[in-house]
Request: fold
Amino acid sequence: MRKIVNVEVLENYELLLTFDNDIKKIKDMKPYLDKGVFEKLKDKDVFNKVKISFGTVSWGDDIDMCADSLYETSEEVK
Reply:
């Protein structure tokens, strides 16, 4: 089970994720912005408040994503 150890907000609703194996990946969050609770992330102020919580990314109490899923669906930074 992967854990995220660092997250940085990039331009255009992307996140730079650093995992516990030192691999860095970029996750494009734009496809999620029209789905359910993720709609709140369209507000850049909300999106920019991303933090690490229990080894994954979180935006408060009601929005988070599985670290393993993020690992599998993000593009590795070479």
